[in-house]
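Researcher: Batch entry, complex prediction.
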Amino acid sequence: MDLFLQQTFAGLAFGGVYACVALAVVMIYQATDHLNFAQGEMAMFSTYIAYTLLHHGVPYWWTFLLTMAISFAGGVLVERIILRPVEGTGVLNEVIVFIGLIAIFNSTAGWIWEYTIKPFPSPFPKETLIPFKFIGPHDLGVIGVTLLVLAAVFLFFRFTPVGLAMRAAAQNPDSARLVGIRVGWMLALGWGLAAAIGSVAGMMVAPIVFLEPNMMAGILLYGFAGALLGGISNPVGAVAGGFMVGVLENLVGTYVPFIGSQLKLSVALVLIVAVLVFRPSGLFGYVVVKRV
Amino acid sequence: MGDQSKPETRELAALASGARLSRRQVVGLVAALAAALVLPWFLSDYRTFQFTLAIIYAIAVLGLNILIGYNGQFSLGHAAFYAVGAYTAAILMDPGGVAYYWTIPAAGAVCLVVGFLFGLPALRLEGLYLALATFALSVATPQLLKYDAISKWTGGVQGVAIIKPDPPFDLPISQDRWLYYFTLVVMLVMFVGAWNLLRGRTGRALKAIRDNPIAASAMGVNTALYKSLTFGVSALYTGIAGALGAIAIQFVAPDSFNLFLSISFLVGVVIGGLASIPGAVFGGVVIVFIPNLAEQVSKAAPWAIYGIFLILFMYFMPTGIWGFIRMLYARFTRGRRAG
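Model: Structure tokens for the complex:
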């Protein structure tokens, strides 16, 4: 039982990170109707910016806010400058541009900061007030931050005019333009927000996996899987999906003997695909009814 | 990724009517073929080997293009089928002792079955979800190939080494040039096959499914069967390319069949030209030579240059290299007629 609890909580801790990335993925999906494959690399780059700021003696929480602001601006710029020219030339063309962005961010980060693994500090205290058996303070902090970001995103989309305008621009660009929403800028804003959330994910992940240019590759995959499992149309579902993927991966690796750590990634993905075969729009997603 | 960009309707019309090649096209094809035949005599063995690889990737890109470009199904997992083809060939050759040319049809047959079986559950998934499922396939492949229980055949992490074939009948050409001609012949067979498949009734059915699946099934197209079969045929092409790749590189190792390979195929499809058969050739060339070119531009951050190349391609040739050539050709001929 102890082993079960321990593995479940360890899974939840990693799930928090996946949930954060899944949330960023869903954000950009809601605001732009696209999945951004370069999300992970953008988050990695943001984390390097945070690393540089910390290195120059900026206090942690100021760094945190500054990094979010810089990432927001960076996300807006990437949309305006790089994505704008290929808009409307087809989904696959945009995917190729995303692949290009991945290569650029990854290679540039390696070039500026080198490929050596760097430690990244955790903002949370070394010990919790009430010592907790199964989960460390940083992991608790990650889960807390994820839930906070989720709440902020939910409030933003649900109760602010800008949030409403963004949803409208993504779901029905033509009608949105007719009621006076500047659709192009809403897309840019969506990219900015997603980059900012991604930077939070990056800063939360870095103390666990250490900072290096390839740190987000696997995590983005899980985040992506979590988002699809929970339902790409639903931020709460995406967060739940992220946690589920974390727990599932850990439990499968622990309890199914012939799988072990060698195949746990594959098995987790196969399970997710199996779920999707029976519920094609995710566990908590909305089923879109098409009229013919 | 549900709605793929629609290729030019003119090309569709030409293909859909089962058109024969025009005289200009025949002249162009013969010229291209002649160029391909004399090419290795101007190049070193290493360059010849690179072009052999480009031809192999062109076959794989054509396979993926049949799936994405003509049938509208997305795949990030074609490295898996490439790996199945490569391992089939390697295992047949090394413990099996089968001659290298017999491994090609064998790899194709195995991949046809594997692809068809994968295509069945994939029927339930569309767009992003299909992308995730195939992505999972891509991630799982190296791990499965390394799995202990089957390492007796696959060689585990070490992979399988095979011997480069000698030219037959004591032909006085180097092994690399012989391999180049061998892959060229296989490519021609595969391309003619694809052309025949796509210009007739089957091709029309595939495109109908891509453009409007509901209308296609209303017209009596067996959507499920065609979609799974397309997955199978696409895997067959990629598997044959994988077998050729194993023979050319003389080695198969699990980590070479990673996600990057799948992404490279996708890059080849889009940059070569979506839903075009000649585009696949350019796709293969791009996969082999653009990373090399990027490395020559900047040793420090070659992949950043690669990324910039990809983005520039999409800015200036949104319909791919073949689309660009067609556009130039159309402009040139129109100008001449007017003048």
